[in-house]
Amino acid sequence: MPVANAPVASGGEGRGGIRGRVSSQNAVDLATAAYATYVAAVAAIFAVAEWPALVLAHATLVVAMLALPRRGAAWERARSDDPTWRRRARATARFLRYTYPALLLTPFFEEVSLTVNAAASQAPYWFERQLYAADRALFGGIPSAMLSESGGPVLDEIMHA
To answer: Would you say 48 and 54 are in contact if contact means Cβ atoms under 8 Å apart?
Structure first.
């Protein structure tokens, strides 16, 4: 029987185990991991097209997130004796550590086309009325239609360049 307040043999805070890694994640990290896990589960349960690749990609992402160094830790600060390659490696790692959620927006958006109808494949696009209603409630109309009306030749050229 485990003793209360006994040290955990594997993965306590500061030991680098999974529990310590998860506790060092912030809300964005946890939300990203939860989303990736949810999509992988939906893909596997409903056997969507290319589900093995989706599950593998999302599992790899979650494992990579657990391997990420902590935000604000000593690894971020350059040292005076660092060679140029190490300074650049730190800068690149810091950039990826802080921006990976934004970098994942496009792949996550694109994969929705594979999973959106998984639960109701017999009635595709069952949710569009709700989405249009939400757009009208939030924005007073459909944003894409409203933006297309407010454009002009100059804006069109800039946006399509």
So the answer is: yes
- Percent helix, strand, coil in the chain, to 5, is 65, 0, 35
More confident residue, 9 or 65: 65
From the list 105, 109, 127, the residue with the least C-alpha distance to 117 is: 127
Verdict on whether the full-model pTM lies above 0.70:
no
Buried/exposed code over 34-61 (b: 16+ C-beta within 10 A; e: otherwise): eebeebbebbeeeebeebeebbebbeeb
Nearest to 98 by CA among 63, 66, 127, 68: 68
With beta carbons less than 8 A apart as the criterion, state whether 68 and 97 touch. Answer: yes
**For residue 136, what are its two tokens?**
């009208």
Q: Rounded to whole angstroms, how far apart are CA atoms 84 and 105?
A: 31
| Separation CA 122–CA 41 (nearest Å) | 20
